[in-house]
From TrEMBL:
Taxonomy, superkingdom: Bacteria
Start and end residues of each Adaptor protein ClpS core domain: 19-83
Keywords for the protein's UniProt record, in alphabetical order: Hydrolase, Protease
GO MF terms held by the record: peptidase activity
Xref: Pfam families: ClpS
Species of the source: Rasiella rasia
One biological process term in Gene Ontology: protein catabolic process
This protein's name: ATP-dependent Clp protease adaptor ClpS
Length: 91
């Protein structure tokens, strides 16, 4: 095995080990854009621009990753989204 192949193998292994969890927000027909934006700013500490962009992506694509991190960091944030009536899950 060449040095380059070994480095690539090590890099791919490191990527698998360092894979972070994601909160995925799903579209619904209930919540307004303003509610989604306000909730993302509160629960995920998004800037107004980030929250607005995520809400637009969710509306047109059906879902959007809104936060990445460790499971322990994401659980309370996802709970805040769910408590606000949004559809979200950690993947």
């Amino acid at each position: 095995m060449s040095t380059q192949e070994k480095q690539l193998e090590d890099l791919l292994l490191a990527e698998k080990v360092n894979k972070q969890n994601e909160i995925v927000l799903y579209n619904d027909d209930v919540n307004t854009f303003d509610h989604v934006i306000d909730t993302l700013m509160y629960a995920c500490e998004h800037t107004p621009e980030q929250a607005e962009q995520c809400s637009i992506i969710v509306h047109y694509k059906g879902k959007c990753t809104v936060k990445t991190g460790s499971l322990s960091e994401l659980k309370p944030r996802c709970s805040m989204l769910l408590d606000a009536g949004l559809s979200a899950e950690i993947v």
